[in-house]
């Protein structure tokens, strides 16, 4: 940033994030600057400037679990989606409910998922979620049968545009309770 | 003449929403995600108070749906029959005289457990819908990329010896104080998330020192969250903790993960 010929740090960050195409964390972004990396604070300040500069553009800076990512914002989705003929996959309620229980109650066993849903999650559901890379076997509980416990992955957070599990919507106590 | 009396109001006719065109029946019944979903549908459809379910009426309606499913020779999931048995049992217990002296702990409402399960399921049903509404990659947001010729560079994290970590731990709390003074903003830390990451770190490794899991950069709050996560995992029997002698370093290991964990990996 002191060199006359060097682009501003936010420009370098923008270029690096565009070139990477995947989320980069602070360490990876620092490494881009080579021998004279900016400290964490000035890097975050530069990211904040980049975010402001992109506010009205067709690309935005997003903070996800894997770090920072440049992405086409959701408000442009209706137009961008026309580039692809196939509609993105819709997931069944069974898949979404199972995913929600794993996300909020992890690490959980299949039996615990069954206790909440009233039906056992089918092998197909668990395979769908695992092959998408959203859940994984996090370990085995030391109880009879040594059941596997499931947890969500970083890919899950990245895919749903979340920086951490704390950003999940709050569980509402009575979602449909009518006002009386 | 009324066929039933519900909370003081006479009902003259059967609920209309029981009639379903025969062709639509199979599709309709398949939309239920299980017995709890079906029960919630019956309760919400009639605007009934979930805390005061008219159990006899709901049981009758539920049984009628189950019979319809049997008539259609749908493969009736065993869970539906288990729920039918549970409803019948609650109905029977509701008929038993209850002591009016009113000690709730000795004489709980037979419906309490069912109500708890219904509300918990409803909570996660809503959570599933909310997750579906989150911006999603390739549906709502699209990672941006520009073409470039330079190959991707990965930088390997430096290896750290185990004995160095124990020394580092002595300074963790002090340094945690220092770094919180300089923190720009505090990062929100989730115990649940930390439980998963901790468990992941312990997979495949024999033993990991407790100090290895603590990161001074996260500050005091981070150390506390990790500690809470370890306690939760111990309580869930997912971890075990060992110590060679008094005041020796504490080591953690994933329980029973050694063989199966290797197979998964």
Our count of helices of chain B gives 11
List the domain count of chain A as a whole number: 2
Look at the structure and give the CATH class of the largest domain in chain A. Mainly Alpha
Oligomer: heterodimer
The proportion of residues forming helix of chain A, as a percent range, comes to 40-55%
Series of secondary-structure elements of chain A, N-terminal to C-terminal: HHHEEHHHHEEH
Counting helices, strands and paired strands, the structural category of chain A is alpha+beta
- In the residues of chain B, how many domains can be counted? 2
- pLDDT < 50 runs, ≥5 residues of chain B: 258-265
Molecular structure report:
The complex is a heterodimer of chains A (180) and B (265). Chain A is built from 8 helices and 4 strands, in the order αααββααααββα. By secondary structure, chain A is α+β, with helices and mostly antiparallel strands. Chain A has 2 domains: 9-81, Orthogonal Bundle (Arc Repressor Mutant, subunit A), CATH 1.10.10.10; 93-167, Orthogonal Bundle (Arc Repressor Mutant, subunit A), CATH 1.10.10. In chain A, helix 1 packs across helix 3 and helix 5 (93-105) crosses helix 7. Chain A is elongated, with a radius of gyration of 21 Å. With 265 residues, chain B is mainly alpha-helical. Chain B folds into 2 domains: 4-95 and 109-132, no CATH class; 162-264, Arc Repressor Mutant, subunit A (Orthogonal Bundle). Chain B contains 11 helices and 6 strands. Chain B has helices at 22-30, 35-45, 55-71, 78-95, 112-133, 162-170, 172-182, 191-202, 210-213, 219-235, 257-264, and strands at 4-6, 9-11, 142-143, 208-209, 239-242, 251-254. Chain B has a 3-stranded antiparallel beta sheet with strand order 4-6-5. Chain B has a two-stranded antiparallel sheet with strand order 1-2. In chain B, helix 2 (35-45) packs across helix 5 (112-133) and helix 8 (191-202) crosses helix 10 (219-235). At the A-B interface, helix 1, helix 2, strand 2, helix 5 and helix 6 of A face helix 2, helix 5, strand 3, helix 8 and helix 11 of B.
């Amino acid at each position: 940033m002191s060199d006359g010929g060097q682009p501003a740090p936010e420009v370098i960050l923008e270029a690096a994030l565009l070139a990477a195409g995947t989320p980069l964390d602070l360490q990876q972004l620092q490494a881009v600057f080579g021998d004279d990396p900016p400290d964490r604070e000035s890097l975050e300040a530069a990211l904040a400037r980049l975010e402001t500069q992109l506010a009205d553009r067709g690309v935005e800076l997003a903070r996800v679990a894997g770090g920072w990512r440049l992405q086409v914002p959701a408000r442009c989705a209706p137009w961008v989606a026309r580039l692809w003929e196939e509609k993105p996959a819709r997931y069944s309620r069974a898949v979404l409910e199972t995913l929600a229980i794993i996300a909020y109650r992890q690490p959980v066993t299949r039996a615990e998922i069954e206790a909440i849903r009233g039906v056992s999650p089918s092998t197909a559901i668990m395979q769908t979620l695992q092959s998408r890379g959203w859940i994984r076997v996090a370990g085995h509980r030391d109880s009879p049968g040594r059941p596997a416990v499931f947890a969500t992955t970083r890919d899950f957070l990245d895919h749903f545009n979340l920086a951490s599990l704390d950003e999940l919507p709050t569980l509402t106590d009575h979602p449909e309770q009518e006002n009386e | 003449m009324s066929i039933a009396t519900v909370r003081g109001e006479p009902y003259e006719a059967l609920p209309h929403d029981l009639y379903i065109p025969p062709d639509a029946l199979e599709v309709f019944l398949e939309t239920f995600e299980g017995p709890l979903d079906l029960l919630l549908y019956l309760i919400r459809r009639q605007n009934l108070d979930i805390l005061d379910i008219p159990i006899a009426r709901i049981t009758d309606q539920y049984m009628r749906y189950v019979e319809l499913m049997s008539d259609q020779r749908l493969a009736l999931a065993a869970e539906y029959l288990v729920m039918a048995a549970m409803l019948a049992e609650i109905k029977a217990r509701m008929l038993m005289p209850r002591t009016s002296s009113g000690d709730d702990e000795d004489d709980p409402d037979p419906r309490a457990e069912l109500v708890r399960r219904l509300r918990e399921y409803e909570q996660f049903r809503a959570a599933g819908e909310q997750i579906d509404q989150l911006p999603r990659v390739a549906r709502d947001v699209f990672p941006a990329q520009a073409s470039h010729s330079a190959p991707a560079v990965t930088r390997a994290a430096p290896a750290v010896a185990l004995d160095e970590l124990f020394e580092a731990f002595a300074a963790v709390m002090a340094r945690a104080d220092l770094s919180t003074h300089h923190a720009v903003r505090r990062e929100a830390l989730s115990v649940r998330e930390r439980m998963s990451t901790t468990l992941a770190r312990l997979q495949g490794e024999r033993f990991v020192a407790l100090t290895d899991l603590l990161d001074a950069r996260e500050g005091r709050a981070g150390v506390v969250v990790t500690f809470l996560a370890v306690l939760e995992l111990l309580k869930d029997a997912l971890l075990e903790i060992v110590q060679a002698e008094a005041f020796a370093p504490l080591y953690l290991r994933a329980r029973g993960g050694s063989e199966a964990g290797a197979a998964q990996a």
